[in-house]
Write a structure and sequence with these properties.
The chain is mainly α. The protein contains 14 helices and two strands. The chain has helices spanning about 45-50, 55-70, 75-100, 110-125, 130-155, 160-185, 195-205, 215-235, 235-245, 250-255, 260-285, 295-305, 320-335, 345-370; strands at about 205-210, 215. A two-stranded antiparallel sheet has the order 1-2. Strand 1 and strand 2 form a beta hairpin. The protein is globular. It starts with about 40 loop residues before the first helix and ends with a helix.
């Protein structure tokens, strides 16, 4: 039988502190200086690591370009229109961005906006109710659609692409068929003379004067929602959960993160955004076209991606999509003010999207390079 192994503490020899030192630092490093793994990175690199920095620089470049190419953009009324266009995209881009940080995305977001508006309009008009009853009913429907998407996703384990593509097709068909069934037309009836309309319009679709320029209330709501989303992501436990489930669902579950709750509520936040934008559209135009909304989901997702969010999840911010939406609004209106063919709009969006993805990739690699 062999001898038992020694049980005493192992004896180690300290590294030679001479010129050929092997303690993980270069010979030229002074004692106490952090090595390459813990050395504090320069401020510039730490700023580049922020997901919103790249899109901010891009938004500044786009704004300067159109301020030069289209002088009418410099007028207060023109800039108010740009901000309005940006806000209608940005309000939806915020919850879409949070969902993407959580590792999922929603293809039904565009038609869900129209579903919300149709629900409020038809319920109020056909039942001759106060419009606020329709508004509340639409909120319940929008949250239910989001909860359904999240529940099916977690229950089946299917990719969010397939789940929300199915919801997109369902809502698109229901929007058209149900509207024709109830109204006999593809659009809802005018509700501008119904009880509660003026109060609802003041909340969702009013304007206010700033230095003689009319600014839409959606611009204010957009900035309020952005501030709230930023606070949630950076200062709350729920924000930590969002990043955790987006980075690795199983790892998040292993450390006690309520993955199912987080995913479902993220989809419900998208439903809330769809409800709010749907109410704005309804009380801005008094009626709703049931075939609208198709393709808007790609705009919302693109604004979030341009804003620094990754399709793979676990990375992004709420401020980045604000600048991404602003770029969309500036390009959309800037082309018009410049007198160019508006067909170039989609080409500009494609260039911005591809450019943003490449820039974000380069910036992240440069920021994490040692």
């Amino acid at each position: 039988m062999g001898a038992a192994p020694p049980t005493g503490p192992a004896v180690t020899t300290p590294p030679d502190p001479g010129p050929g030192r092997t303690d993980g630092r270069n010979a030229g490093q002074a004692d106490g200086q952090a090595d390459g793994r813990t050395r504090r990175r320069p401020v510039a690199l730490r700023l580049l690591a922020r997901p919103e920095v790249g899109v901010f620089l891009g938004a500044v470049a786009v704004a300067v370009f159109f301020l030069i190419a289209a002088p009418s953009v410099r007028e207060g009324g023109s800039m108010a229109t740009v901000l309005y266009q940006s806000s209608t995209i940005g309000i939806m881009a915020l919850p879409v961005a949070l969902l993407m940080i959580g590792g999922e995305f929603d293809l039904s977001a565009g038609v869900a906006v129209v579903t919300s508006a149709l629900t409020a309009s038809m319920l109020s008009y056909q039942l001759t109710m106060n419009v606020w009853m329709g508004v509340l009913a639409a909120l319940v429907v929008s949250l239910a659609v989001g909860a359904f998407n999240g529940w099916v996703l977690m229950r089946t384990g299917l990719p969010s692409f397939l789940v929300t593509l199915g919801t997109f097709l369902i809502l698109q068909g229901v929007n058209l068929a149900f509207t024709k069934l109830v109204t006999g037309n593809v659009a809802t009836d005018d509700i501008s003379d119904m009880d509660g309309f003026d109060q609802a319009k003041a909340l969702f679709a009013s304007s206010f004067d700033v230095g003689g320029v009319q600014v839409k209330i959606t611009v204010v709501w957009w900035l309020v929602f952005a501030a709230l989303a930023t606070w949630v992501l950076l200062r709350t436990k729920y924000g930590n959960w969002v990043f955790a489930v987006g980075g690795s669902r199983e790892s998040a579950r292993a450390v006690g993160v309520p993955v199912t709750f987080t995913k479902i509520t993220l989809f419900m936040l998208v439903g809330f955004g769809a409800w709010f934008v749907g109410m704005h559209q309804l009380f801005s135009f008094n009626t709703v076209q049931s075939g609208e909304g198709v393709g808007q989901e790609l705009i919302y997702i693109a604004a979030a991606v341009i804003g620094g969010c990754l399709l793979t999840g676990g990375y992004g911010s709420a401020i980045g999509p604000v600048f991404g939406a602003f770029m969309f609004g500036m390009v959309n209106q800037g082309i018009v003010y410049a007198g160019w063919n508006p067909d170039w709009f989609k080409a500009f969006l494609g260039v911005m999207l591809l450019g943003a993805v490449l820039i974000n990739l380069y910036v992240r690699r440069a920021a994490t390079r040692r």
